[in-house]
Design brief:
Layout: H1 2-21, H2 30-44, H3 49-57, H4 59-79
Helix pairs in contact: 2-3
Length: 86
């Protein structure tokens, strides 16, 4: 019975998150997106607009996301070691 309640809670939570994510979408102003598309080669030297935006324009965001991911993995490894003390 407890497992069913957990499954129902997770499904409801997923539905709520999807409902919130489907709301209003924030769009970049046309001049910003146009600038990225027209000047990514000169600004970054990249041959691909997606790589230019991901690795150069949003570099610090990407670095901190990776840092948070590594920190969470290390924390999970610390707390859930296999064969640890019981």
């Amino acid at each position: 019975m407890k497992q069913i309640a957990v499954v129902v809670f997770v499904v409801l939570l997923m539905g709520f998150v999807l409902y919130l994510a489907n709301g209003e979408r924030e769009m970049l102003p046309n001049e910003v997106s146009r600038y990225y598309i027209e000047h990514f080669t000169e600004d970054t030297g990249a041959g691909n607009a997606v790589a230019a935006i991901y690795l150069n324009y949003r570099m610090y965001d990407t670095i901190f996301e990776a840092l948070i991911l590594i920190t969470s993995v290390i924390g999970m490894m610390h707390f859930f070691t296999i064969g640890g003390n019981k």
